[in-house]
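Thread title: Can someone regenerate the structure for this chain?

I was given the following input by a collaborator and told the matching structure tokens would be attached. They weren't. Posting the sequence so someone can regenerate them.
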Amino acid sequence: LADRKLFTPSSLKAAVRIKTASSGKVKKMTKQQLKLDAKKRLGPDGKQLPLWVRRPALEMEKDIERKRRIANKIAASLLQKRIKAGVKVTDEDVVTCLRAWGFVRNEQRKNVLPAGTDFVNSDTLGLNCARDQKVRVTGASQRHPDMTRLLNRWLADHWPEGLAQDFPFTSISVNSNYNARRHRDGGNEGPSLIKAFGQFTGGRLAYWPDDDRSVKIEDLKPAQSVLYNVRAKTVTFNGKRAHEVTPFKGERFSLVFFTCARYWKALSNQNKLAESLGFHVPTDASLKAARAVVSM
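Best answer:
Regenerated them for you:
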């Protein structure tokens, strides 16, 4: 009775959708799909919620957008203050905005899912190749541009020493509180930059710099990896080589700045929009120079 959230009624449509999906009368589901479907409907205590108290998907989407609007306003205010004062965007500014941001339950990044999970809190800002194969600036960046600008301004203010000023990146993978399992990226071009934020212990980047993809990823030896403290500094790496995040305790966010696959298919107006948000759209020369940094 103390938890008012339990008395937020679900829509009849959402309840019927859940009921028919679980019963298999309308749509056949495998045992594994049923198990994952049931897991998504657990309450805070790990127990199944009655149909009538489960929040419909539409309400969750509205809640995410509400949080994002708040985060965008915070980012706009912080940017204005820092620019007016002539000072850098800080790590604390980034954490403040990321705490406010509404993350989606991303079920698409199956290659990074930690064991026992079926989604991660991860969003992409900037250019992205959509399901229709068109490359455009994501809706999240278009609707909340100041959030994207603040993250890119942070990178510009804390540019890695020795890295070319035209180092290309068209997108940011924004991640919250999960340690990505060992994987190789497939949706990017050239090297990436990674930086972690928050108060946590552990959470290092384990990276296999000599991985040539000739060995199954699960057979790579930990002794062949290099551990990077990505909270202490921004690290440049080749995401197509094996990497993972070690276990951690605490609150951990990470930003991965990368160049979107098939970025060259983006229309000119999308590239201009990306650049107005602070991204570095590649040229052939800048991408070639960037690849040489990590011997791709």
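Residues 57-85 form the longest helix (29 residues).
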